[in-house]
Protein 1
Amino acid sequence: MENGERKQAKILGFGVDLMSFSEALEFTMNRLRAGQGFQVVTINPEMIEIAKKNPDFASVLNNAELVIPDGVGIKLALKIKGINQENIPGIEYSKKLIGLCAQNGLPVALLGAKEEIVQKAKQNLLKEFENLNIVYTRNGYFSKEDEESIKNDMTAAAPKAVFVALGAPKQEFMIQELKKSMPDAVFVGVGGSFDVWSGVVKRAPEIYRKLGLEWLYRTLKEPERFKRIFPALPLFLIRVIIESVFQKKGY
Ligand code: UDP
């Protein structure tokens, strides 16, 4: 995907970029090399539901330069619209991007999760990627008043790729602030990824992931999450079906 010729599908009014995993990484690296910073949103049905109620979040989604289809809910929604799109898990895209940063000498920042989690995630990433340069690390439990100093300290550290793990929509709003003073860096909201990278939370075994059932595994492990996410998914898909029927009829 080149700048200017963006291939997108709309789900309930929100754009999702259609591209392969490798194209998403290529797009990211091309922009970084050109010194053009930007925001990556790894979109899921929950985020679309939030955006429908929250205009500020809707505008973040509409203005993100890259919106990655993350998870089976978005994949199904696109399928309903007749589009076959590869699922690009945000956590995998981010890990690959960190590897590319290590290879290309681009400094990285990690912001979010509990202190011991983000420190352990940092250690594990440094073990995994030779030459990785992590120039800023901060846990995600801070007050509104701390935001300015976080922004100043991170800006002084001059990362080129910033991973923010505060959960949506908090992380996307924080990114909006941070990117003002770091216009040449890429910012990715990564949800619970640091928990996984720290080794504290396990990702689903390969077989669940291959079958698109990672959500089922996480549900079994975290029933609370199930209560939050599951009731929303069928409703989301019903709305997408209604939308696509109306679109076909030309309304
Ligand atoms: N988190 C944080 N600060 C907060 C709230 C959450 O750093 O004020 C972290 C939390 O510790 C976890 C991540 O944000 O590491 C989000 O996790 P969650 O699983 O809720 O996000 P999801 O993957 O569902 O977007």
Protein 2
Amino acid sequence: MSKHDLIIRVAGEGGEGIISTGDLITQACARAGLEVYTFKTFPAEIKGGYAMYQTRVSPEPLYNQGDTFDVLCAFNGQAYDLNRSLLHPGTAFVYDGPGGDFEPDVPPGVHAYAIPMTQTAKEMGNIKAKNMVALGALSQLFDIPEQALREILSAKFGKKGSTVVEGNLNAFTRGRELAAALTKSDPWKMEKPLHDNNSVVLSGNDAVGLGAIIAGLDFFAAYPITPATEIARYVARHLPKRGGTLIQAEDEIASLGQVLGASFAGKKAMTATSGPGLALMGEMLGMSFMSETPCVVVDVQRGGPSTGLPTKHEQSDLFMAIHGSHGDCGRIVLSVEGVGDCIGLTVEAFNLAEKYQCPVLLLSDGSLAFSTQTIPYPEPADYPIVARKTWDGKGEYQRYVITEDNISPMAAPGTPGGMHIATGLEHDQAGEPNYTSANHEAMQAKRFDKLKAVVDDFAPAEVDGEGEADLGIIAWGSTIGVVREAVARLRAEGHSVKGFYPKLLWPMPVEQYEAFAATCAKIMLPEVNFLGQLAHFVRAETTLRPVSYTICGGLPFTPAMIVGKAKEMLK
Ligand code: COA
């Protein structure tokens, strides 16, 4: 397959402005009409540690952050050491020198450019602007739109005052001059866009916040936790504009409790957390299921267990998402592939919660939380909204009356004649506590039977490819985007491969898995966790016996990793 993308990785110490540098490159390329897909990793500390920001740009659609970089910009020796093994012949290597803290032994075939970032920033009396010297050099060497960069960096640092902006612009100019004095020997430069795209660049977390607003969010309560906090920050900026309420609760237990209270009062309500917070929400998930109170819980997965890897990627909360809580506690679990999904499936999560009056968990992950992607400009009118079934005010009101679809009409507090108890105690159709065996059996059946309609009420899982295949690859979450590209590469090399990308993970669309497997000689299931969590449920709920391919190093798969494993299985 011919290469139409350019991948630039900026790496150095947290606090040196690595993230800002990558973000400015990304914004400038998106403004130029290119597709972008970014990924960043950074340490748990505010300063120090290794920070990296990778920007992939292309005139064509992008679904993941790519295999490795074409251009590496290293701010220090640690960044060089951590990335040296990826400096293949043909890659370009921009580094801080002379005057930096390392002297690289550049591998043969690598196009190296020494830019005295630290020294120049010091000479300008503005060490903080080291990253702007680097940005200027990158702009000059790889044709990153200069004017767009000047405008965007002026806007980004405007809140820090005109002196900072001017200092940064001067450092940017100096960086361009330093690079212009060098002889460019590499082939890399920004391609021109294919079309003028009406797109936006959004992070996965901001997209979840936008989806909630589009869905009609009224109430949001959460406790800050990496990597979910940006969802709350997005909602805090936009929810008050529409008269909604955001509360930073004292902990995650209270957060979901407040969400259930708001939902009981007739409001659309959501919380967002990560693994450690979801673990605390177990009992309240049971309260939602038992009292049939709608709620949306977003879980942005990170490395676990315990405090784990707060700023690193993993898909390891599926066991908890599907069964977290005591007793038999039902719920609906969705997972997102990319930023576009973060909008659409958040709306879907609300629609399903409101319709089926149960907890709906939306699984995102660190890779998505830290990624920004170009997506078509979202039009709220493109997202149908579903309202909860409400009582018509006629006859005697029973909150949990058995109906044909097992979904009972809801009456908001204060509705005349609609007074009722929404309780976590087992209860009868009127909501009165009832501990008899027959009643518990009947009410559990009601609460679970209503969820049987969910699979047919949700879009079928995407099948990537037609007919029979030697290998089928099942993927979920942001791993789907990586598998999508791997499948395309394998097909371009003549291999017979198909993909299966479920986004409704629970209740499991068993027949869709079986139908897919019936066309594949072998099945592989890659996921970023240690135990192979979706593979476990696939084996438990279907006749499939996929080969589980798991990694858990805090980073996402790359397409090359999937291709390599697939070729092993195709032998
Ligand atoms: N001139 C002036 N200011 C600049 C600048 C420049 N040339 N370049 C960057 N800065 C500012 C940025 O605006 C940012 O300021 P802000 O915090 O007011 O937005 C700050 O310097 C940091 O720069 P940035 O590029 O955002 O990050 P970095 O690459 O320096 O890495 C982080 C620092 C991201 C690692 C750190 O800020 C952080 O967030 N650490 C905590 C991680 C975490 O979530 N831990 C989990 C705990 S459970």
